[in-house]
Amino acid sequence: MAAAFPADEGYDRGEGSNREEATLITAIVLIHAATDTIPETAQAIADIDGVSEVYSCAGDVDLIAIVRVGAHEELADLIPARIGKVPGVLDTDTHIAFRSYSSADTQSAFDIGIDGD
Fold first, then answer.
1. Domains observed in the chain
2. Distance CA 48, CA 82 (A)
């Protein structure tokens, strides 16, 4: 049984929304890659439909990919069958986003009404 989230809690299930992002599922994919293939691996991942961004980074992982799809089933296909099979990918760790907090959105909220003062 799916949990119901009240609208006053700030949950946006995408119903009646004009924002495409409201209906997309965002996943953050942490990728361990063969060190000598990181640039080629990153570009190959970036070329996959559904992958919006790929970052090379310092730390415990080599690459971070941001994936946006319309359904969980697409994630189930895209990550193991496409990203996981890119030459140079050694391992993936996927995290599904619940909610987005953007400084640009926050600033826009503070800007509302300022022109009318």
1. 23-98 (3.30.70.920)
2. 8
